[in-house]
Amino acid sequence: MDTRKAYDTWASQYDTNNNRTRDLEGQALRISLAPIQFDSVLEIGCGTGKNTEWFIEKAKEVTAIDLSDKMLAKAKEKNTSAKVQFTQADITLPWAFIGKRYDMVTFSLILEHIQNLDHIFQEASGSLIPGGYIYIGELHPYKQYLGTKARFDTEDGQQVVDCYNHHISEFIQIAKKHGLNLVDLNEFFDNNEKNEIPRILTIILMKDPVPST
How far, rounded to the nearest angstrom, does the alpha carbon of residue 44 sit from its chain's CA centroid? Predict the structure, then answer.
C-alpha cells in the first residue's frame, strides 16, 4: 500500500496496536540520544508523536514532520507545547519546510519507505549545523531480508506498507558522501535476546565540523 494512504489508514489504531518495532525503536532512540546534548530537533517521521514528547523535554525547539495528515493530527492532540511545530511534508521532494539549521535530525522507522536515500541524506546534511547529529532508527535489515515489513490489520484484511531494503553499508556510504560520519551503530533485540535476529538498527552520524584555521 502507498505510504501516505497506509499511514492515514493506520493512524486511528497505530498507538493501540501491539507493535514491537514501534516500542523497541522508541526505547532505542532514548538510549542512543540520552548522552547527546542538542537544542533544536528536526524530527522526520514523527507519526503520532511517540518520540516528540521526549524531544520537547530535552530540546528547546522541535520541528516535527510527517507525510500523513492523520498521523500528525494524533501527534498534535498529544503535544501542545509551544516548543513544537508540526508540518506535513513529503521528504522525497526538496525540503522547502526548512527555514533554519538544526543540531539534531532524526529519522524513526521511515527510511525503509524511501527508495532514494541519496536525496534524503543530501537534504538532511544541508539541514544540520556543522558538528550536528543525525539519528536513524530502522527495522533491522536482517528482519527485512526474512520478509518482515510494516503491516497492520483492517476490516478489509492485512495491509502491507511499501518498503525498500537498505543494507547497513548503504546507509554508511551514502551518508559519508554527504559529509556525515559514523559516530555510533547499535542493534536492539526483542527481550534483549541476543541469540536472536535483532529487530532495530540505530545509526548516529555527525556532520563534518567547520575546518580548523
Answer: 5
Residue (of 66, 118, 61) closest to 85 by Cα position: 61
What are 71-86's pLDDT values in tens digits? 999 999 999 999 999 9
**Residue 8 main-chain phi, psi, to 5 deg:** -60, -40
Distance in angstroms (rounded) separating the CA atoms of residues 52 and 62: 8
DSSP string, 134-200: EEEEEE-HHHHHTT---EEEETTEEEE-------HHHHHHHHHHTTEEEEEEEEE-GGG-TTSPPSE
DSSP state of 53: H
Q: What pTM was computed for the model?
A: 0.91
pLDDT, the chain, mean: 91
- Residue 78 corresponds to which cell in the numbers above? 498529544
